[in-house]
């Protein structure tokens, strides 16, 4: 699509245009193949959840999308340990682990730890040896009742904040949102420099 105040091009596609045509006749068959593949995978991994392992909630990067949340690749080692699990064991019970991701906020860490704990509380773990069930493993009655979850595990929803319509106050009219964001970013960036300057001034 055209960006800015650019010229609308007149594309000269007269010669041999038939060779340039892109057809899309395989779309319905491809849709059906994907559906069949999902069905086959659900049967193959049963009684595990059909949607795959549990994923963390992460914030999207950049100015444009950072108010949105989405599913991440895997939980951090810090989140896994805070939920009382070990990374190796977590991978065996349907939790995805990403050793590269780092927690940069307390809120994000707490949100994912709560997600892991909720998953752990609802989990029906089939015993390896039914005669000697381990600590987290389910009893025989629970195993009989277990069914495969066909929908996503704990679907991620956007945090919508509904505000009641009101007349803007003088302080709201004076508030400059973009300037405030820039100010916060500058304060975070210059925190170390300013702290060092204060400490050197106090030492003198």
TrEMBL record:
Pfam families given in the database record: Ribosomal_L13e (PF01294)
Highest taxon listed in the record's lineage: Eukaryota
GO molecular function, one term: structural constituent of ribosome
Keyword tags: Ribonucleoprotein, Ribosomal protein
Listed Basic residues bias regions: 31-42
Record's keyword annotation contains Ribosomal protein: yes
Gene Ontology cellular component list: cytosolic large ribosomal subunit
An annotated GO BP: translation
Segments of this protein annotated with the region Disordered: 28-53
InterPro entries given in the database record: Ribosomal_eL13, Ribosomal_eL13_CS
UniProt-listed HAMAP family: Ribosomal_eL13
Family from the record: Belongs to the eukaryotic ribosomal protein eL13 family.
Protein name in the entry: 60S ribosomal protein L13
